[in-house]
Amino acid sequence: MSRQPHSAPGALSVNEAADYLRISRASVWRLLKIGALPRVRLGGRTVIRRVDLDALLARAAA
Q1: Are 17 and 48 in contact (CB under 8 A)?
Q2: Element (H, E) at 33
Q3: Can you give the pLDDT at residue 35?
Q4: Going edge to edge, which strands form the sheet with 45-49?
Q5: What are the C-alpha distances in Å from 43 to residues 8, 46, 47, 55, 61?
Q6: Does residue 11 carry a pLDDT above 60?
Q7: Reported pTM
Q8: In terms of Cα–Cα distance, which of 29, 24, 17 is closest to 55?
């Protein structure tokens, strides 16, 4: 099953999350550190769910 070229997967790496939000990696790590953005640890990697990124954007726009 192939993804659409511009669709984001359900879970993103820190780099992908930074690209998705159009902010720096350092800003994503800062959001993770203060708890503004939840993370999941999978096999030693930090993964961020796209729904959590969208919720962050919705809160920022409100």
Answers
A1: yes
A2: helix 25-34
A3: 96
A4: 11-12, 45-49, 40-42
A5: 21, 8, 10, 25, 33
A6: yes
A7: 0.81
A8: 17
